[in-house]
Amino acid sequence: MRIVKWVLAVLLILAILFVVIGMILPREVTVARSITINAPPEDVFPHVNSMKATEAWSPWLSRDPATKLVYSGPDAGTGARLEWASDNPQVGVGSQVITASTENERVETALDFGDMGTANAAFLLVDAGGATEVTWTLETDMGGNPVGRWMGLMMDRWVGADYERGLANLKALVEG
């Protein structure tokens, strides 16, 4: 009986620590990756300013070629929208809409992953003397839930690798 009480006390202390540390972890999470593409910003911009164009270099669509894609709004720029649905949990269900677009400089999007939450993403294009430095960012609020905040610690690892793959695909497409 003494061992059972000790084990329960240790488990209670660990649970309290999990919650307390979880509440101290950052609520806001940012992931960013960059690549230099050997082309001017005006050659890169069309590939990030259109939801349809992202289909050619997306790091997620190769995971499930059967992903259902629905486009709406304009073909490019503010208001261009993509909704996707896949049975593959690494692709899932969601939507993305371009919320702001500055020609050859910046594209901002709002993402909705349904039950998984929302996020904002952006593509920043900086002229680097005939080349373009492309930075892809993601910002999300992990909420007040300590479990969500613990998951926030892994966002860079989860999303970062996909961003690197997507940027490499974009580079190959634009330079090819």
UniProtKB/TrEMBL annotation:
Xref: Pfam families: Polyketide_cyc2 (PF10604)
Database matches in InterPro entries: Polyketide_cyclase/dehydratase (IPR019587), START-like_dom_sf (IPR023393)
The organism's taxonomic lineage, starting at the top: Bacteria, Pseudomonadati, Pseudomonadota, Alphaproteobacteria, Rhodobacterales
Protein known as: Polyketide cyclase
Species, as recorded: Pseudaestuariivita atlantica
